[in-house]
Amino acid sequence: MGVIIIDGYTVRHFVDDEEFQKNVDERFASLDLNGDGVLSRSELRKAFERLRLIEAHYGIDVVTTPEQLTALYDSLFDRFDCDRSGTVDLQEFRSEMKQIMLAIADGLGAAPIQIAIDEGNSLLQKAADLEAQKIAAV
Ligand SMILES: [Ca+2]
């Protein structure tokens, strides 16, 4: 478990950077377990569990039953699956990840806050790393 200091500005910067697109594309590829080029419901569920988006963005910290969790993941899947094809393609994944990150940025606002990160490669961690690199490069 690490702790990063991050604000909305840092997250927005990251979303506009090509590094973000690269990260999202890599993530998509690693989540597409059967390699068919789209994410199924179960593949995307694994993604949510890994990204910890529930905790980070949706603000739900008390999820008690498996049924509630499934309902939650289903509603998230429907958000990603814009054209209701039953799968999430790369374009849908990219645009929704961007929306989610921007929503996080809005939530963070201008005041830097500390966030506990317990996965080394989370997107917020990458955002903080990128900002640190930029500061170091000046
Ligand atoms: Ca797939």
Automatic annotation (TrEMBL):
It comes from the Eukaryota. The keyword Calcium applies. Keywords: Calcium. GO terms for molecular function: calcium ion binding. The keyword Calcium applies. It holds the Pfam family EF-hand_7. Residues 19-54, 68-103 form the EF-hand domain. Coiled coil: none annotated. InterPro entries: EF-hand-dom_pair (IPR011992), EF_Hand_1_Ca_BS (IPR018247), EF_hand_dom (IPR002048). This is EF-hand domain-containing protein. It comes from Aristolochia fimbriata.
